[in-house]
Amino acid sequence: MQFAFKITLTGGDTNETVNLDLPVGLYGMTYFGFEFTTGSGATIQPVVSEDAAAPAGGGDEEDRYAPAATTAKATPIQTQFDPPIPFNVAANAASARGGRLYFRPHFNASTDNNGVGMIVFTPLGPQAEVLSV
């Protein structure tokens, strides 16, 4: 089973955060697609993270997808990952499905930005487990 999140943002600002609710477990992000369509901003620097406050460009190991470069408005990002990028979805009491990841587009300016996208995750299976060292 895959989990696909269709994202439509209207009026997004520089601190926009989208909750990606998943059941608790290990997942691989297999696809990331997003396009900053309209608004007063000029660029985005997207992050998909286990951390709700993930900075643009990523800040630590929880920021699994965090390109260092910005992407201009009207330039689609369409990236297929093989192998997938691993994520540990931990329990989150506010989540409708038990766990949560976060998508932050990091619009560079304003509060009137719009964008559309899709993010796809695949469970890594029952053989996967998180080991603490």
What does this structure look like?
- By secondary structure, the chain is mainly β.
- It has a domain of 82 residues.
- Helices cover 0% and strands 50% of the residues.
- It has no helices and nine strands.
- The protein has a four-stranded antiparallel sheet with strand order 1-9-3-7, with no helix packed on it. A three-stranded antiparallel sheet has the order 2-8-5, with no helix packed on it. It has a two-stranded antiparallel ribbon with strand order 4-6.
- The chain is globular.
- The model has no long low-confidence stretch (mean pLDDT 91).
Helix and strand run? EEEEEEEEE
N-C termini distance = 30 Å
The proportion of residues in beta strands is: over 45%
* Approximate shape: globular
Give the proportion of residues in helices.
under 10%
Mean of residue pLDDT values: 91
What Rg do the Cα atoms give? 15 Å
How many distinct beta strands? Answer: 9
Biggest sheet details: 4 strands, antiparallel
Give the class from helix and strand content and strand pairing: mainly beta
Contiguous helical run count: 0
Order of strands, widest sheet: 1-9-3-7
User: Low-confidence parts lasting 5 or more residues at pLDDT below 50?
Assistant: none
